[in-house]
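Hello,

Our lab assistant flagged a job as stuck in the queue for most of the afternoon. It eventually completed. Since we weren't sure the result was trustworthy after the delay, we are filing this so someone can double-check. Below is the sequence as submitted and the structure that was eventually returned. Let us know if re-running is recommended.
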Amino acid sequence: KVDCCVSSIAIVETGESPEIPQKIPVGIITDRDLVQFQALGLKLESYTAKAVMSTPVLAVKPEDSLKKVQ
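-- returned structure --
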């Protein structure tokens, strides 16, 4: 459980290269998603992150310009 305000969380899988361990983003869940699920009366403990995450995840490199993000 997280004790601070978090608006989204990335769902990651471990990359296949044992020499260079990487976390690859495969989905995202936002606080808005959780509010919507609760409004629908869904029991959050009955679902996995994989079942409800938004995909695909669009990603940029830290050095990419905001123009690319737009």
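-- support follow-up --
The delay was a queue issue, not a problem with the job. The result is valid. The mean pLDDT is 88. The CA atoms of residues 27 and 33 lie 12 Å apart.
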